[in-house]
Structure formats: structure tokens, C-alpha cells
Write a structure and sequence with these properties.
- By secondary structure, the chain is mainly β.
- Helix content is about 0%, strand content about 55%.
- Strand 9 and strand 10 form a beta hairpin.
Length: about 120
Amino acid sequence: VQLQASGGGLVQAGGSLRLSCAASRSTFSIITMAWYCQAPGKQRNLVAYITNDGTTDYADFVKGRFTISRDSAKNTWYLQLNSLKPDDTATYYCNAAGLSPSDDYWGQGTLVTVSS
């Protein structure tokens, strides 16, 4: 499975962006679709995930501001970023994972830059 992330860009603080992650094909082995972020020189952190049954969860630092969603028919999931802050500046990576260690796929990353 190949993942293609898109939607990043430069936005002013308080602005919004929507990131998309398109999978090359569907697979029944994928259970969780997620977004991670990694700022320069820092570790990669989980931002949000959504499961096959629609369960979602968010990192504390994005709760109330970001929303994850999916369109199963399009093999695509999204991350709506609202009320952006300069601290949200990072490369955002999408991930699809299943129970097996071999079911762990990453997109190439899309850069989000928030100016103050």
C-alpha cells in the first residue's frame, strides 16, 4: 500500500488547512489510520487516529482544534487543522497500520508552516 499525503502549506496563525492521505488501494488488514507530526529536531508524535469502526482520538495539544475523518470509498483520510498556532509547524505524516508488523505504511509527509 502506498500513501500519498497532501494539503500542507504556509498559513497565518489562526488559519486552517486540510490535509489528505490517499491510499493506493484498500486492504482489510488495515485497522487504524493516523496522522503524526514532526518538527525539526524533534521526535515524531501522534496527532490523531481513526479506526475502521470510526473511533477517533487526539493528542492533547490538538484537541478541539484538529479533526480527523475518512472516506472509505476513496481510501482517503483527512486532518482538518483549525486555529493553527506557530507551534503546529511541522511535517505531517500519514500512517496506516494493522495488527501485523508488516502492515505499517507511511506517507511521504506534507509540510505545514504557521507564521505568527
